[in-house]
Fold this sequence. Notes:
Elements: H1 14-23, H2 39-45, H3 47-61, H4 70-85
Amino acid sequence: MQTTFAINTDELDERFLAGVKTMFPHQQVTICVEHKPDETERLLANPRMKAALEKSIAQADSGEVVSFTYEEFLALSQKLHAQHAA
Length: 86
């Protein structure tokens, strides 16, 4: 049996260890620790994605943004859906 836990190190405590021991009583287990990069690290590791992110940040910094209310978004998405369905 293999089980994978994705957990923040802040949550590692005696209860977690007790849970593992309950799942695998009196057995030899291997615990492998792997750093999972956050979403920003993942984006910045890809040159194309990094360039797109930097461009978006520059556009936002220069005031080149689009904003709308939830109701405006809903109306536009319904209109686009109707056009696509036709």
